[in-house]
Amino acid sequence: MTQATGNDHPRVIAAINQAIDLAANDQMSVAVELLTSLSHEFPDAASVHGYLAWFLLETGRHEKAVGPSQRAVELAPRSERASLVHFHVLWRAGERIQALDEMKRFLKIQPSEEYANIIKEWKPGANWRHDNK
Asked: Terminus of the chain with fewer CB atoms < 10 Å: N or C?
C-alpha cells in the first residue's frame, strides 16, 4: 500500500499497534474510539477501516462494523485481509447473501486458503456457523 493512502504513515502504524495492545488488554472500546478518530484523520487508510471494523465486530456491534469494512474493501479491493474482515462482518450482521457475494468477488481476483477452509466447513442445508460462535 502506498503512503498516499496513509497506511504507511507513522501515526497510523503507531495508533493501530496501540489499538491492538488496548484490545489485548480488554480495552476494546478504547481501541474503537482511537481508530474511529484515526479514520477521520486518515480516511483513505484501508488498514484503519479494517481494524476498526474488526474491533467493532468483536464488541458485538456488527451492523456498525459494516461501513468501515466496506470502506476497507473499497480502498483495498485486492486485500485478502480486508475481504475476510468484510465477509465476517457481513455474516455476523446477518447479511449472508452479501457475505457470500464478497467471498465470490474476492475469489475471482485470486485464490484464498482461508476462504477455501470456510467453504470446506460448510454443509448445505445445515445451520452453518463458520465462525464456530
From this structure: C
**Count of Cβ atoms closer than 10 Å to residue 128 Cβ:** 13
CB 68 within 8 A of CB 33: no
Q: Which sign, positive or negative, has the C-alpha torsion 92, 80, 9, 19?
A: positive
- Give dist(CA 93, CA 103) in Å, integer: 15
The predicted-structure confidence for 18-74, as pLDDT tens digits, reads as follows: 999 999 999 999 999 999 999 999 999 999 999 999 999 999 999 999 999 999 999
3-class secondary-structure state, position 79: coil
CA angle 75, 76, 77 (to 5 degrees): 110
pTM across the whole model: 0.87
Half-sphere exposure (CA, 13 Å, Cβ side) for 38? 30
Measured distance CA(128)–CA(64) in Å, rounded: 23
Please give the grid coordinates belonging to residue 87.
Answer: 465477509
Going by C-alpha positions, the residue among 100, 87, 99 that lies closest to residue 50 is: 87
